[in-house]
Each structure stands twice: as structure tokens, then as C-alpha cells.
Amino acid sequence: DAYLSAIDAANERFNAYVAVTHDQAREMAAASDAKLAKGEGGALEGIPLGIKDLFATKGVHTQAASHILDGFKPEYESTVTANLWADGAVMLGKLNMDEFAMGSSNETSYYGPVVNPWRRGANGVGQADNKLLVPGGSSGGSAAAVAAWLCAGATATDTGGSIRQPAAFTGTVGIKPTYGRVSRWGTVAFASSLDQAGPIARDVRDAAILLKSMASVDAKDTTSVDRPVPDYEASLGQSMKGMKIGIPREYRVDGMPDEIEKLWKQGIEYLRAAGAEIVDISLPHTKYALPAYYIVAPAEASSNLARYDGVRYGLRVPGKDIIDMYEKTRAEGFGREVKRRIMIGTYVLSAGYYDAYYVQAQKVRTLIKRDFENAYRDGIDAILTPATPSAAFGIADEDMASDPVKMYLNDIFTVTVNMAGLPGIAVPAGVDANGLPLGLQLIGRPFDEETLFRAAHVIE
Ligand code: GLN
């Protein structure tokens, strides 16, 4: 009830929820109460969560924040949310996001932007102004809801940074697990070879508990991996002695603000003080990750989004024949950024360009993966980098709006991780000159989320 009334009071301001499931939340909470009264209940019994609008929730609003899925209520439940409910969690509602998870500011949502609960000058640090800031994206609703205490934790997804960048912009913790750790079944597909779900939470412990519930092998997603899910919470508080943390020189990008540099140094000092050995490393293909991502991700998206044709789901705009109906539905149903991705994707997959762009990007992807493999072969346990090149920026920022590539640069530190299929966590590590949260990122070996939780807990 406390969470529902907080949402009712504050959602108009933050626009974090696109649907609030009052009745369902109360029913699920009552069932949890009954279990707890009998001394029963799962790991998340009675814990109220927000669910990104990308996850299919049976009978409940599921639109990937797109107009084209108007009125869509799936007949089935995603594996991730089913796992959470099986452990006793309670659904508060569906969270705003960038349309089809394409974006870094939550401004591409059909439902309008989400407002970051943080303001410049918060807590008396730096220059106060009234400018509304973005929460990051695409999981902007998830991050804002967690930061504003409108849920105890949230589900999110990350194709190129969509868990870690909004976590960094809102002072929350977000982890993108290893590709295959979490089932993608029932999660609306953006770029299938990059997409992974994970939690956004208020601290590292909550993120560890949530990921344990979300993760599973699943016969309905053949890329999910059959490995036991460890007790992530148990890795918190373990010593860093004997661990080697790599600092990749290529992440020291041109024009990086001093405060990000300072934050990174501070993170290094925390880990060193906890007993870790700090090692300079090189990931030489880093600079090709962003351009390669913006070929691979749109290519897969253009194929995945072909299913929204006005026949099977959501919106249908009548036309004079079926082709006309497809065209009108897609013209009206998709927003600008989604159309841009479909056009880029279709172009790089078309005859004559496929070898020059798509095949080339796949080769670059292999080189990026090898960079990490080499570092891990040399004994590196985890890699520390900044999570984002800046703190949260303003809603309708002119620079970003006029040049989509500037927006894409937000993902410069996060996309490599998706290209290599590795786990990455963003953890709050300090504030900028205006008191806005800044995050660091730890990148791990495949299926070694435990080391990330352990190291992130030292930094938080
Ligand atoms: N911002 C990136 C994009 O727009 C990543 C989004 C994501 O991780 N879903 O593609």
C-alpha cells in the first residue's frame, strides 16, 4: 500500500510507470501475507517490484512503450517475471522505457520522457537549477522508479547499456548478466544476440538477490545456459586479496571530463585498499565497438520488428489493401528512432552492402571479444571503467536532439560488454560538481557475476 500510494502521488511528476496494477498488486500481496503468516514463502515473498514494459506479463499492458503495440495484453508470462512471481515478488505495474528499448534517455517512449528524480544542486552540492534531467535509457522508468522509491527493485534489459547507463544516471545499481544467464523468452526482442535482462536495485545486495531469482535455464530460450545459479549474495563482503583488476587504457577517451577521471581513480583506490592488485591493460579494438554495435543492433532489430505489421498485434490502421494497411500501420505505429534503426538495419543487410557492413561488423565483434579473452587469459579477474562519459543531461538537450550520434556516444563504455557477451555492473561511486550521481562499471569473466558483486560492494 505504501508503494502504491507513493506511485499514485508521484508518478505524474516522474512518468516512470505506464500502467499501475493496483488490484493485482493487492492480490499478490495478500497471497504473500498468507504465506508469510504460515512461516512459508520464497526469497522475494511480498517484495513489490516494477516491471519494464518490455517483459510480457499475462493479461497486463505490454507495449514496449510503442504505439504499434496499442492494447496488446499477452496470453503468456515472460520467464523472468514468472521466476520472480514464483519466488513471491509482487507486481506494482509496468515501467516506461525508450520505444523498443532504442535510446539512451527515455525520450523515444510513446508515453513521453521519464524525469530523473535527481536535480542539479541536490543535497546542497553545486549549482541548483530547475532543469529536468533524463534518467538515461532505455530502462529509464526502471531506474527512476527505484531511485524515487516507487518500487523496491525493477526488471530492466540491456542491449548496449540500457541497464548500466540509467543506473549510473540515477545513483542505483544495475547488472547486465552474461549472455545466456537469463532467459529472453517473453521479453520483446530488440537485438537478439545482444539482449539480456537484469535487475536495477537500490544497492548491490538487492541486485544480487534479484538476479538470483531472475536467472534460469529455459527450454524456451535455446541461448539460455544450463549452469547452476550461484548464491550471489554470499559473495558480498568477501576479500579482494589476490584479485587482479584491469584498467583498460583505451577507455581514457578524448575529452573525458576531469570528474570522471577522478571518480575512476577513486574506484581504483577503493579496490586497492580492499586488497586487489591493479593492472594496466589494453583492449585495442575498443574504438570500433560503437560503430560495429550500430550496425549489428539495427540489423537484428530490422528483422525482429518485421513482425509488427498490423495483423498480429496491437495497432491496425486500415488501408485500401493489405500492403497499404502494413504501410499505414508501420508509418503511424513506430516512432522516429525506431524507423531510423529499421532503415539502417535494412540497408546494412541488403545485397551489395551486407559484406561491406554487416559481415565486417561481425568480424570486429570477434576482435572485441578476443581483446577481453586475452585480458582474462593473462589473469585479470575483472575490469574497472567509468559507466558513462558524463552525468545525466537535460530533457530535450539540444546537442543530443540535433545529432543522434551524440546520443549514441553515451554507450561508449557499455556496448563492448554486450558485443562480447560478458557481464557488467554499474555501481554508484560519487557525484559530479552539481551533486549528480556518477557510476563506475565492472566487467567480468563469462558467468562470473559473483566477482562483480563482490567488487561493486567494495565501491558502493
Ligand atoms: N542506447 C543503446 C541503443 O539505443 C542501447 C539500448 C539498450 O541497451 N537497449 O541502442
Topology:
Layout: H1 2-14, E1 17-20, H2 22-37, E2 48-52, H3 79-86, E3 90-95, H4 140-147, E4 153-158, H5 164-170, E5 173-176, E6 196-201, H6 204-214, E7 244-248, H7 258-273, E8 277-281, H8 289-304, H9 322-333, H10 336-349, H11 354-377, E9 382-386, H12 398-402, H13 404-408, H14 415-420, E10 424-431, E11 437-444, H15 449-459
Parallel strand pairs: 2-3, 2-4, 7-8, 7-9
Antiparallel strand pairs: 1-3, 4-6, 5-6, 5-10, 9-11, 10-11
Helix pairs in contact: 4-5, 8-10, 8-11
The chain binds glutamine (GLN).
- Identify the strand order in the major beta sheet: 1-3-2-4-6-5-10-11-9-7-8
Quick one: overall form?
A: globular
What fraction of residues sit in β-strands?
5-15%
The CATH architecture of the domain at 2-235 would be: Alpha-Beta Complex
Largest sheet: 11 strands, mixed
Radius of gyration, taken over Cα atoms and rounded to an integer in Å:
21 Å
The total count of strands amounts to 11
Number of helices: 15
User: What are the distinct ligands in this entry?
Assistant: glutamine
H/E element sequence: HEHEHEHEHEEHEHEHHHHEHHHEEH
CATH class of the domain at 2-235: Alpha Beta
CATH H-level superfamily of the domain at 2-235: Amidase signature (AS) domain
According to CATH, the fold-level topology of the domain at 2-235 is: Amidase signature (AS) enzymes
* Helix/strand class: alpha/beta
Enzyme class: ligase
Function: Hydrolyzes indole-3-acetamide (IAM) into indole-3-acetic acid (IAA).
Active site: 52 (charge relay system), 138 (charge relay system), 162 (acyl-ester intermediate)
Domain Amidase: 1-452
